[in-house]
Amino acid sequence: MRALRIILIIVVVLGGLFVIADRVAVHLAQNEAADRIKTNEHLTETPSVSIDGFPFLTQVAGGELDEIHVGIKDYEVDTGTAGGNGADTIRIDDLEADMHGVDFSGDYSSATARTATGTATISYAELLKAAKSEPTEVVPGVTAKVLGLSDGGNGKIKVKVRLEGSVLGQKIAQTTSLLSSVTVEGDTVKVHADSLPKTGVDLAEQKIRSITDFQQVIDKLPGGIRIDKVEAAEEGVHITAKGTDVNVTG
Q1: Among 19-28, 167-176, 180-189, 202-211, which stretch is predicted with the lowest mean pLDDT?
Q2: Of 106, 104, 101, 74, residue with least CA distance to 90
Q3: Rounded to whole angstroms, how far apart are CA atoms 129 and 77?
Q4: Which residues contact 131 (CB under 8 A, 6 or more apart)?
């Protein structure tokens, strides 16, 4: 019995040491991955990285990690749309990505996930960058400008538009709010007014929509994940994204 107790004690001690070694190893790996993502994605702050699954060391021995969770508070996207539709850069808030089935190289310099899903938010202030910032003439003597965006409820965006000018001596000075739908087509987030402002004059729909409707390209999310769905919410436009063969470390 004494020998059995000694064996049990040794097993417990070794098991405890293995758990400690496993947790130390996963902590070091998480820090290394976070530093690589920060460097490769040119982030100002270190992201959070969590490697799930236990034990970690047996996953390493098998050459594949079950799941890695990455959190980036602020992610600045270079949209590559200078001179075109949308802002040159746009900030995405609270990007959370879950990477599944992560294979890594022998020297741990790279890691690729078979699949990935993610969520993030574009604030209304950021999305407003895609709208025309200066008053634009919609008919001779009348200009329009988008003043702001906010939650319109029921998955709609409220777009505040200012119309100013005069037509045939009739002065126009009107601020109105429109409900707009937000959709995604490929890598482009589009905002489209459900109806146009009533001004009392016959304004060409195409001219008005050149102000009320706008779009923003977002095609450079971390690891190559792509936008799948968008939905207007209280704090901004909520994004869901997904991808395959995603580069975890940038």
Answers
A1: 202-211
A2: 74
A3: 13
A4: 146, 149, 191, 211, 214
Helix (H, G, I), strand (E, B) or coil at 94: strand
Question: Measured between alpha carbons, how far is 161 from 138 in angstroms, rounded to an integer?
Answer: 12
Q: Quick one: average pLDDT of 195-202?
A: 65
Inter-CA distances, 22 with 9, 48, 75, 220, 239, Å: 20, 19, 31, 35, 35
Least confident of 119-133, 141-155, 195-209, 230-244: 195-209
The Cα–Cα gap between 194 and 148 comes to 16
Give the residue extent of every domain in the chain: 2-125+233-247, 128-217
Q: Residue 165: CB partners within 8 Å, gap ≥ 6?
A: 137, 141, 142, 143, 171, 172
How confident is the model over 45-75, as pLDDT tens digits?
A: 999 999 888 888 888 888 788 999 999 998 8
